[in-house]
Amino acid sequence: MSDLTALVVGGTSGIGLATARQLAARGARTHIAGRSQDRLDAVAATDPGLIGHQVDGTDRDGIAAVAASIGRIDALVLALSSTLGAGPLADLDLGVLRTAFDGKFWAHLTTVQTTLPYLAADASITFVSAISARTGLAGTAGLAAINGAIESIVPPLAVELAPRRVNAVSPGLVDTPWWDGLPADGRAAYFAQAAAALPVRHVATADEVAEVVVLAATNRNLTGTVLEADGGARLAAL
Fold first, then answer.
1. Mind listing the pLDDT tens digit for each residue in 168-192?
2. Do 173 and 208 contact (CB within 8 A), yes or no?
3. 183: cis peptide before it, omega within 30°?
4. 34-71 burial, b for 16+ CB within 10 Å, e for fewer?
5. What pLDDT digit, counting tens, does each position of 79-125 carry?
6. Which stretches of the chain are DSSP H helices?
7. CA–CA dist 164, 185 (Å, integer)
């Protein structure tokens, strides 16, 4: 994998950072992009082998500049996320939901469209969605809409962009900074309750999901597929 160049957008924390680390450990020249310079600086201090770029996924010119500076991209991973968009429909602020779409769906689509001229002929594109797209958990209709929109474009893009490969990984409950808005004790209690309901009986780590993302990004026989890395969440009542 030493001849592979990867770009992980949303690669400064959580699943994105775990994926970047695993790609780099396999010998890939790995670039990460994120909005926060503070997070990029923190990653640079712990992972000097990762090449950081400060850019917003919705900034077409910024993404184009990053892609041009990299040159050929063999593996594009889109791991941008947002904590916005959750809650009961009756109380959901649709303006906030639009912002959440901007931060994830539109950021993913903008990044793919902008980087296309720099993607190798046999490059991979891997989206990170979420199992909310295919579960019936109350309070997640907004999140389901965002992630469902992402997953719906995987099959047509896999055909349209062939021989480039297009896949998505759909995580369930994952212990990442996405949950930092909850008090530590409340988070621990929820994780314990959820773990008891999951068939695998534990909450996933970012590294566990990243293993699946790396598989999708590097296995030349996978395309047009949504890989469920959810610990069986789609089968359980959480």
1. 999 987 877 767 767 877 777 877 8
2. no
3. no
4. bbeeebbeebeeebeebbbbbbbbbbeebbbebbeebe
5. 997 767 666 778 878 887 888 888 899 999 999 999 999 999 999 99
6. 14-25, 37-46, 60-70, 94-101, 107-115, 141-152, 154-160, 184-197, 206-218
7. 45
55 phi/psi in degrees, rounded to 5 = -165, 150
Place of tokens 């793919």: 112
CA-to-CA dists, residue 121 to 66, 160, 229, angstroms: 19, 13, 28
Q: For residue 104, what is the DSSP state?
A: I
CA distance 57 to 164: 21
CB 168 within 8 A of CB 150: yes
> What pairing do the DSSP bridges indicate for beta strands 119-128 and 165-171?
parallel
pTM of the model: 0.91
Structure tokens at 228: 């469920």
The answer to whether the CB of 216 falls within 8 A of the CB of 225 is yes
Q: Which amino acid is at 128?
A: V
Q: Are strands 174-175 and 29-34 parallel, antiparallel or unpaired?
A: unpaired
Distance spanning both ends of the chain, measured CA to CA: 39
In a 3-state reduction of DSSP, which class is residue 57?
coil
CA 207 to CA 14: how far, in whole Å?
Answer: 8
